[in-house]
Amino acid sequence: MASGTQSTAKPLRLHGAVARDLGIRIVSGDCRPGDLLDGEIEASVRLSVSRTAYREAVRILAAKGLVQVRPKVGTRVTTRDKWHLLDPDVLSWMFSTEPEEHLLVSLFELRKIVEPEAAARAAERRTQDHLDTMRDALDLIAEHTLAREEGRRADQEFHATVLAAAANPFLQSLTSSVGAAVAWTTVFKQRVRPLVRDPLPDHVGVYEAIAGGNADAARQAMAHLVEMALLDTTTAPRPAARGKTRAA
User: Fold this and answer.
1) What is the DSSP letter of 77?
2) Residue among 136, 182, 139 nearest 159 (CA)
3) How far apart are CA 211 and CA 207, in angstroms?
4) pLDDT tens per residue, range 97-138
5) What pTM, to 2 d.p., does this model score?
6) Nearest to residue 82, comparing CAs of 102, 98, 61?
7) What is the rounded CA–CA span in Å between residue 179 and residue 193?
8) Which CATH superfamily is domain 98-235 in?
9) Which of 84, 247, 114 is CA-nearest to residue 178?
10) Range 77-110 burial, b when 16+ CB lie within 10 A, else e
11) Where are the domains of the chain?
12) Which end of the chain has fewer surrounding CB within 10 Å, N or C?
């Protein structure tokens, strides 16, 4: 994983680290739907962890829909339609490897459905505090760029504030998911080199439309921002393959 991705992650307790490693194996396809994971005893010995830590890790995966635990059957990997794809951890695990092109495009499709309408509502309902927070975020993006952690955190704050300014509790409940999508796709597209194109003007366009109270312009500006972010992501150079390919 790129060093930038590592900097966005918090230190994990042992069961969280085991859940992350298993989760990455599942979402990357190393463990396929229907596969049975090792039992507690075998897994704890193989991973050199306690049975309690492994059990807690499996509970985390089950809560995110990645596995199903059944007595006398074991822990079985579920099909992708059961996964909580917008869970921030699941998103981070997806982007720790090379996600499928369809999933990548679908994630941006979701953003284009949600964020432009949120921006339109924000243009009608924003407060001065929202505008001040967005302006501060833009200043930090300009200072640090999205190649640095400080700039990426400011980018997340910008998008989170747009959702907050929409004053819709259901939209605001998507903040952590949208934030994770913004964060991990930004890291993903800069694995080889920083962005060639400067995305700051797109963000400024969204801010100015919201600040001006122009819902239509805000909707269009945010749609353009997401479209350009998708283009940046799908055209970004990929790292050279290293080692052997993952198991089929």
Assistant:
1) E
2) 182
3) 6
4) 889 899 999 999 999 999 999 999 999 999 999 999 999 999
5) 0.85
6) 61
7) 22
8) GntR ligand-binding domain-like (1.20.120.530)
9) 114
10) bbeeeebebebbbbbbbbbbeebeeeebeebbeb
11) 3-82, 98-235
12) C
Phi, psi of 173 (to 5 degrees): -65, -15
Tell me whether residue 69 is exposed, middle or buried, using C-beta atoms within 10 angstroms of its C-beta: 0 to 12, 13 to 18, 19 or more: middle
CA angle, 122 then 154 then 184, to 5°: 100
> How far is it between the farthest Cα atoms of the chain?
62
Give 224's contacts (C-beta < 8 A, 6+ positions apart). 202, 205
- In this structure, the strands spanning 74-77 and 67-70 are antiparallel
Distance between CA atoms of residues 145 and 83, nearest Å: 33
Quick: pLDDT tens for 28-42: 999 999 999 998 899
Tokens of 229: 């972010």
How far is the C-alpha of 23 from the C-alpha of 15, rounded, in Å?
12
**CATH no., domain 3-82:** 1.10.10.10
Residue 24 buriedness (CB in 10 A; 0-12 / 13-18 / 19+): middle
